[in-house]
Structures are given as structure tokens and as C-alpha cells.
Amino acid sequence: MRKPLGIIGTVAVVFWLVMALFGQAIEPYDPLSQQFARLTPPSSSNWFGTDQVGRDILSRVIASARVTIPAAVAIVVLSVMIGSFIGAMAGFLGKAVDEIIMRLTDIVFAFPSIILAMIISASLGPGLRNAIIAMLLVCWPEYARIVRSMVLTLRSSEYVVAGRLMGRGILSSLFVDVLPNVITSMLVLAFTDFGGAVLMVANLSFLGLGVIPPQPDWGTMVQEGMNDFSAWWIALFPGLAILALVIGVNFVGDALQEALDLHETTAHA
Predict the structure, then answer these.
(1) Residue 233's domain is classified under what CATH number?
(2) What CA–CA distance (Å, rounded) separates 134 from 122?
(3) 173 — pLDDT class (breaks 50, 70, 90)
């Protein structure tokens, strides 16, 4: 909180979390209702204007937070859990298990993440659930590789060896001695990757592979605005929402990283 950019990022993140949690009570109109004139610019009655079928853009931007943010949270949390466990098992067990898992991660890293997510999502069919599954399959190897490298360093530590000598099994030693020492780094990485997850959800929806209309979503709204550049407000405001949330998350992630690095330096000193 001593970092100005960290404060700005925190405000942006908290704002959109409030929109995701309580947006339904804040929305001025029903985001699906076609009750206004088509393609009207921002005005006192419709602050962000209306779209091609007369829906209020502001209400739809707020409603989109209830879709995009929970989806991004689910992607990051599940990716951290799956990737951390698989990576920890690879680093702790080594040999054949490590080799198999690392080759799988190499295959995933051989493709650009968004391209691979598009291929998987297109294979599964459009829809938010399939988009989340596709992004999970793309995102977990990053955490697996990082956790594996940390576990390889920690597994020979004295307290881990002492725990094994006291009779702890592999899983018990992994959860009690190893994973608690890597969770801080994973939280910082996960917080930073949350912005990337928001962008990926928006990208897939923009391409028609994510959220299915008429359910509001920032990516879908930007795509709709691309069809009519004269109605600039249709794509501008959802685009600004994505920008504000992603930049806010990155600011907070950078501030957390600096704070943790300073704490570790002080502890070592």
C-alpha cells in the first residue's frame, strides 16, 4: 500500500470485485432488455449509450463483470491447484514421473497459449464452460514447471529430510513441508496471471468461442462494436473495463512482488 501504483491497482480491483458481487443491484436497467432506441450515443438516461438492439451499454458492462471475473478466478485457482500438485509430484518423485510430466508441459509450451486455447475451445464447442476447460488445459503447465523447479531445490532441505526420517509419506511430506514454502510465490504469480485470464476469456468471447449471446460479456461487446465503427461507444466502454481491470491487477501484482522481495531481503539481512 506504500506504492502509488499499488493503491491505484487496488482501487481498480476492488471496484470491479464490487461490480461482480453486487452489480445486479447497481445496474440501472436490465442488461438483456431491448427497451431503448437503437444506437443512441451516451446521454443522461444511458450514460454509455445503447447498442444495435436498444440495450443499455452501462448495464451490460456491469453485468459482464459477473461473468468474466468469476470465470477468470476459476481458471487461475484451478490452474494453480492442478499445476502446483502435478509439478510438486514431478519434482518430488523425479525419474519417470518427472520426465513424462515435463514432456507434456513442453508440448503445451510449443504452441502459443491463445492459439491452443482457441483450438481446444473450438473442438469442444462454444460456451463459457468449454472455454474455461480449454484455458485450464493451457494454463496449468506454467505452474507445474515453476513448482517443480522449487520442489527440486526444497526436497533436499534438512527439514524435509528430517520429516521423511520421522516417518512421513511422500504425500504428507509434500503437503506439510514442501508446498507451504512455495505457496507465496504461487499467489503472486496467480494474481498477475489473473489479468491474463481476463484477457483470454474476452478473446475467446470476441472470437465467438466463449460466452454465448445474449449473455453479456466484455469480449462479445467489443466484437459487436467492431461491426459499426460509427457507434464508437459500443466497443469503447467494455474495452476500457478490460483495460482498467487488467492494469489494476498488474499494478497490485507488481506491488506484491516488490513487497515480498523487500521482506525476503530484510529477512536474509
Answers:
(1) 1.10.3720.10
(2) 9
(3) low
In degrees, rounded to 5, the angle at the alpha carbon of residue 162 between the alpha carbons of residues 159 and 164 is 115
What's the 3-state SS for 137-175? HHHHHHHHHHHHHHHHHHCCCHHHHHHHHCCCCHHHHHH
Read off the pTM. Answer: 0.85
- What are 177's strand-pairing partners? none
The CA distance from 246 to 193, in Å, is 9
Distance of CA 53 to the CA centre of its chain: 31
The region, left, alpha or beta by phi > 0 then psi within -120 to 50, assigned to residue 216 is beta
pLDDT tens across 102-128, in order? 888 888 888 888 888 999 998 998 889
Inter-residue contact 59 to 35 (CB < 8 Å): no
**Is there a domain that residue 194 lies in?**
yes
Within a domain: residue 195? yes
| 25 within domain boundaries | no
**CA quadruple 160, 165, 166, 167: dihedral sign:** positive
Q: Which domain holds residue 120?
A: 68-268
Any domain includes 58: no
